[in-house]
């Protein structure tokens, strides 16, 4: 019984990533919610997942290539989820423990070596601790964490299922 094809999942995952990125841009440009550096890194993770999902949808890879696409999507979900987890953690800190606000990402990219920028961004700052938006009691980083977990787990589950189905035929 063919319940749900992996190729269709790849397409849906790519569409989800595009929609999430579209909403992030909408919230930035129409709702005037400026993204902090951690938000920007989460967007990059969704771009990564979306690109690999689109590759999977277009080429419908089999065998080791299917596992390569799934692995690359899962890496994006894990990295994005870790960044979102850190972001949610920062938002939950008591006010007296929130780190000072630092320079903007563009300034850091212009003046610091890449690894220093990465370290500084992942540490987070006061701008990352501010909750600007909520839906059903969850902040935007909390929702991105939910999406990263969901995209990663469903991709792994459907890839394993597809491998088992093909192993029986």
TrEMBL record:
GO terms for biological process: protein folding. The chain crosses the membrane at residues 40-60, 67-85, 140-160. Keywords: Cell inner membrane, Cell membrane, Chaperone, Disulfide bond, Electron transport, Membrane, Oxidoreductase, Redox-active center, Transmembrane, Transmembrane helix, Transport. Pfam families: DsbB. Residues 27-44 are periplasmic. GO terms for molecular function: electron transfer activity; protein-disulfide reductase activity. The keyword Cytoplasm does not apply. Residues 1-9, 62-67, 162-169 are cytoplasmic. It is a multi-pass membrane protein. Its main location: membrane. It comes from the Bacteria. The keyword Magnesium does not apply. Disulfide bonds join 36-39. GO terms for cellular component: plasma membrane. It is found in: Cell inner membrane; Cell membrane. Belongs to the DsbB family. HAMAP family: DsbB. Required for disulfide bond formation in some periplasmic proteins. Acts by oxidizing the DsbA protein. This is Disulfide bond formation protein B. It comes from Marinihelvus fidelis. The gene is dsbB.
């Amino acid at each position: 019984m063919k319940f749900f094809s992996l190729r269709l999942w790849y397409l849906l995952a790519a569409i989800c990533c595009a929609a999430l990125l579209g909403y992030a841009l909408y919230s930035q440009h129409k709702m005037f919610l400026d993204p902090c550096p951690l938000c920007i890194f989460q967007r990059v993770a969704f771009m990564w997942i979306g690109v690999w999902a689109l590759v999977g949808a277009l080429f419908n890879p089999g065998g080791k290539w299917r596992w390569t696409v799934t692995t690359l999507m899962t890496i994006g979900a894990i990295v994005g989820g870790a960044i979102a987890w850190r972001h949610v953690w920062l938002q939950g800190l008591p006010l007296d423990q929130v780190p000072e606000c630092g320079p903007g990402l563009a300034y850091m990219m212009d003046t610091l070596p890449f690894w220093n920028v990465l370290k500084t961004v992942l540490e987070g700052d006061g701008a990352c601790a501010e909750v600007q938006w909520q839906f059903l009691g969850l902040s935007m980083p909390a929702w991105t964490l939910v999406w990263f977990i969901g995209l990663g787990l469903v991709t792994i589950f459907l890839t394993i299922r597809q491998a088992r189905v093909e192993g029986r035929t």
